[in-house]
UniProtKB/TrEMBL annotation:
Record protein name field: Sulfatase-like hydrolase/transferase
Ranges where the Sulfatase N-terminal domain occurs: 22-345
InterPro entries: Alkaline_phosphatase_core_sf, Sulfatase, Sulfatase_CS, Sulfatase_N
Native source species: Oceaniferula marina
Stretch forming the signal peptide: none
Keyword DNA damage on entry: no
MF (Gene Ontology): arylsulfatase activity; metal ion binding; transferase activity
């Protein structure tokens, strides 16, 4: 009897290890950590985002390698840096027709497709609209969304893999979810990977569905105490948080669908964003290409502040990740390719620069882990800065190549809000020298010329 029971347990364990998981990745647009309840937001409720942290893992030091849409999304899919990919700034409509991602660099959805997964992407693409850059040529068997970039929240015009374009009446945030739910139901009997890329909470923040606006119509949100902020900053914040609330409600619809379809225990759910955001933080609005929203300053302020590069990252992996797991190690969206393939147990020889955070999810200590995040932002559209960043646990060095007297050094341990630029402090010369050496090493390995005109 004991032998039979032991054999049964071995079989059950083997079946669990061979289980073919589904994976859903929800990616919002322009959402920093400060907007989510489980990261400290208290002006609105984000129960469904918070539930992923409660039932799974929350990453407290999750960053992106580029602080704007297109290069960050390209890195997220390929595990490669923006200068390697040739996508270093957000793509305008005209640029999208000539430039973008290429299947020369294998994406993790392509790896999943090669391993029998049905792969879908709904919503925002923003990685080029030329033929070589389209989702169908970069790993997706299904696409319904906008190839170019953003759109108005009530003017949704989506294209599919057959290049058929149609306007869809309603609220974009709900429309993306409706399509996602249909995809889940249609593919529930086969392994699938679904990327739901909301345009929210990107500007314009509204109008949002009435059910969401009703929750915040009387909200008086907290804002930064940065001096001389424009008078409409609190209104901007309220509208932005309304859009975050709309995403949370729709995330709840996706989670409920998984439960109704019997897929909850066999689906990994990942929630993150393409980069962070500012509304009054550091006196700015937007992200790495932030603009001043103060009465005494105007124009673009290129930056790689924590608020611009930090993103929410929560992962629910039923039966594998212990509920309430907290991951404090530094991660970056360049880690997604090795981590998703790692979670799914897929082997791939695809070159990348990321780390597989699967052991961190399981409470294990990896043999090696990063001690820094390397960032790039080679601007084309809003300014001519060519930024490179090294962020360690305690320090951040940002070089603004192509412009003079803009370099930055922050003591993150004693000044986590990055309020004092120490770049000209002679006592920190050794710190700067060590960080610069690490930055130079990264750039040399990538053949990265920050002074390049391309």
């Amino acid at each position: 009897m004991k032998t039979i029971l032991f054999t049964f347990l071995l079989l059950a364990s083997a079946q669990a290890s061979q289980k073919k998981w589904n994976v859903i990745t929800v990616v919002t647009d322009d959402q920093s950590q400060w907007s989510v309840g489980c990261y400290g937001q208290s002006d609105i409720q984000t129960p469904h985002m918070d539930s992923l942290a409660k039932d799974g893992a929350i990453f407290t030091n999750a960053f992106v390698n580029s602080p704007v849409c297109s290069p960050s999304r390209a890195t997220f899919l390929t595990g490669r840096h923006s200068t390697e990919l040739g996508v270093t700034d957000w793509l305008t409509g005209g640029q999208s027709q000539k430039n973008g991602i290429s299947n020369k660099f294998t994406s993790w959805p392509e790896i999943l497709r090669q391993n029998g997964y049905t792969t879908g992407l709904i919503g925002k693409w923003h990685l080029g609209s030329r033929e070589a850059s389209l989702p169908k040529n970069n790993g997706f068997t299904y696409f319904k969304g906008n190839p170019a970039g953003g759109w108005h929240p009530k003017k949704t015009i989506f294209t599919d893999n057959q290049n058929k374009t149609e306007p869809i009446t309603g609220d974009s945030v709900n429309i993306c979810t409706d399509i996602a739910i249909d995809f889940i139901k249609e593919n529930k009997s086969r392994p699938f990977s679904l990327l739901v890329h909301y345009r929210e909470p990107h500007a314009p923040y509204g109008p949002m569905p009435s059910i969401d606006e009703a929750k915040t119509k009387d909200l008086k949100p907290a804002i930064s105490d940065y001096p001389n902020l424009n008078k409409n900053t609190a209104k901007l914040m309220r509208n932005y948080l309304t859009a975050v609330s709309a995403v949370d409600r729709n995330l709840g619809r996706i989670l409920e669908t998984l439960k109704e379809q019997g897929l909850e225990e066999k689906t990994i759910v990942i929630f993150t964003s393409d980069h962070g955001y500012n509304i009054g933080h550091h006196g700015l609005r937007f992200k790495g290409n932030g603009y001043w929203i103060t009465t005494d300053k105007k124009g673009c302020r290129p930056n790689m502040f924590e608020t611009s590069i930090s993103v929410p990252l929560m992962i629910r992996w039923p039966g594998v990740v212990k509920p309430g797991t907290r991951v404090d190690a530094m991660t970056a969206n360049i880690d997604m390719l090795p981590s998703i393939t790692g979670m799914l147990g897929l082997q791939s020889a695809t070159p990348h620069h990321g780390y597989d955070f699967t052991p961190l999810l399981k409470g294990e200590k990896p043999a090696q882990w990063r001690t820094e995040v390397f960032g790039q932002y080679q601007m084309i559209n809003d300014a001519k800065h060519s930024m490179r960043m090294i962020r360690t646990k305690d320090w951040k060095l940002i070089r603004h190549y192509k412009v003079e007297n803009k370099d930055e050094l922050y003591d993150l341990k004693n000044d986590p809000g990055e309020t004092i630029n120490l770049i000209n402090e002679k006592k920190h010369a050794k710190v700067i020298s060590k960080l610069q050496a690490r930055m130079d090493s990264r750039m040399k390995a990538l053949k990265d010329d920050p002074l390049s005109k391309s």
